[in-house]
C-alpha cells in the first residue's frame, strides 16, 4: 500500500512537471495592458462605424431635402477622418504580441511588424487624422468651400509624406550607421526580443527615440497651427454651446499631443515587457484614443445630430415667410462644427 502511494505521488509530480513545461512552451501570459488596448481598439472601431452610419444617413437625407444640402457639404472630409482613425486603430494591432504569437511568426518577421507599426502610426496614420481634424476646424469659419476632398487629400499627403519618409529612413536604413557611431540601441531599435524557445521567440515593440523626435517636431508645428486656427474659430462663434464644444476639442488635442510625445521619450527608460513600460505604452495609446474620440464626437457625430434636429424643426413647424430662424439654426447653418 505504501508503494502504491509513493507511485501515485511520483505520477502526480511528473504530470506537474509536464504541465509546467507545456505552459512555458506555450509562451508568456497575456498582458492585462494588451487586453486593455484590444478593448480600446474595439471601442474606436465601433465609434468609427457609428460615425460612418451617421454620415451615410445624412447623405441619404440630403438627397430628398433641400434644407440638408448645406449641412452635408463636408461629408467626404468627415468620411476621410473616420477612415484614418479606423486605420490607425487597426495599425495598433501590429504592436500587440498577443496577435503576433498566434501567427507563429519568426522573430525577424515580428521585428518587421514592429517597424511597420511605428512607421504607419507615427509617420502617416496619426498625423493624417490630425491634419484632417485641423482641416475640419479651419473650414468651419469659411462660407465658400469647394473641393473638400481634393484639398484635404493634398494637405494630408504634403504633410505626411515627409514624415513617413523620415520614419522609413530611421527604422529601416539608419541602424548600421548609428551602431557605428556608438549610439544606444533605443535610438533606432523598434523591437526587443525577450524570450526564446528553440526557433520560436517573442518580440516586443518599442518606440525608437529618433522616431519620437521626428513625430515630436510634427507635434510642435501642429500644436501651434491648431491653436491659431481654433482661436480664429472661437473669435467668430457666438453660440455658447459651439464655443464649449470647440474649447473641449482644443483642450483635448493640445493636452494629449504633448503628453504623448513626453511619454514616448520616457518609454526609453524601461525595457519592453516591464510593467512600467507597459503602463507608459498604454498611456501613449490613451492619448491617441482621446484625440480620436474627441475628433469623431465633436466634428462628426455632434454636427450631424444637430443638423438632423434643425431639419426636423423645419419639417414639423408650419412655414412662415416672416419667421426668423432660431439662433441655433443660424449658428449651425453649415453643420461643420
UniProtKB/TrEMBL annotation:
The keyword Transmembrane applies. The keyword Iron-sulfur does not apply. The chain crosses the membrane at residues 36-60, 118-137, 149-173, 213-234, 246-270, 282-301. Keywords: Membrane, Transmembrane, Transmembrane helix. PANTHER family: OS08G0346600 PROTEIN, PLASMINOGEN ACTIVATOR INHIBITOR. This is Uncharacterized protein. It comes from Ficus carica.
Amino acid at each position: 500500500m505504501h508503494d502504491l502511494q509513493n507511485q501515485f505521488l511520483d505520477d502526480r509530480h511528473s504530470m506537474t512537471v509536464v504541465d509546467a513545461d507545456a505552459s512555458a512552451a506555450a509562451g508568456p501570459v497575456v498582458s492585462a495592458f494588451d487586453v486593455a488596448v484590444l478593448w480600446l481598439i474595439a471601442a474606436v472601431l465601433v465609434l468609427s462605424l457609428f460615425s460612418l452610419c451617421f454620415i451615410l444617413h445624412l447623405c441619404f437625407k440630403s438627397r430628398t431635402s433641400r434644407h440638408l444640402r448645406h449641412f452635408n457639404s463636408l461629408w467626404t472630409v468627415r468620411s476621410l477622418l473616420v477612415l484614418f482613425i479606423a486605420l490607425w486603430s487597426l495599425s495598433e494591432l501590429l504592436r500587440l504580441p498577443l496577435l503576433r504569437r498566434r501567427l507563429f511568426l519568426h522573430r525577424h518577421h515580428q521585428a518587421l511588424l514592429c517597424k511597420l507599426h511605428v512607421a504607419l502610426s507615427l509617420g502617416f496614420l496619426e498625423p493624417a487624422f490630425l491634419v484632417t481634424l485641423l482641416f475640419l476646424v479651419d473650414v468651419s469659419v469659411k462660407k465658400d468651400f469647394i473641393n473638400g476632398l481634393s484639398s484635404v487629400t493634398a494637405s494630408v499627403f504634403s504633410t505626411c509624406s515627409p514624415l513617413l519618409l523620415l520614419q522609413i529612413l530611421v527604422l529601416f536604413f539608419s541602424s548600421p550607421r548609428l551602431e557605428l557611431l556608438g549610439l544606444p540601441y533605443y535610438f533606432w531599435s523598434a523591437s526587443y526580443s525577450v524570450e526564446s524557445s528553440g526557433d520560436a521567440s517573442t518580440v516586443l515593440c518599442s518606440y525608437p527615440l529618433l522616431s519620437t523626435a521626428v513625430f515630436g517636431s510634427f507635434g510642435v508645428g501642429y500644436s501651434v497651427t491648431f491653436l491659431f486656427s481654433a482661436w480664429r474659430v472661437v473669435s467668430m462663434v457666438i453660440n455658447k454651446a459651439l464655443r464649449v464644444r470647440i474649447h473641449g476639442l482644443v483642450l483635448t488635442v493640445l493636452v494629449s499631443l504633448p503628453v504623448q510625445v513626453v511619454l514616448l521619450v520616457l518609454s526609453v527608460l524601461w525595457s519592453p515587457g516591464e510593467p512600467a513600460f507597459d503602463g507608459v505604452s498604454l498611456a501613449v495609446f490613451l492619448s491617441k484614443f482621446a484625440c480620436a474620440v474627441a475628433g469623431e464626437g465633436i466634428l462628426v457625430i455632434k454636427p450631424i445630430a444637430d443638423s438632423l434636429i434643425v431639419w426636423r424643426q423645419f419639417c414639423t413647424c408650419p412655414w412662415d415667410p416672416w419667421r426668423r430662424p432660431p439662433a441655433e439654426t443660424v449658428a449651425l447653418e453649415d453643420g461643420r462644427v
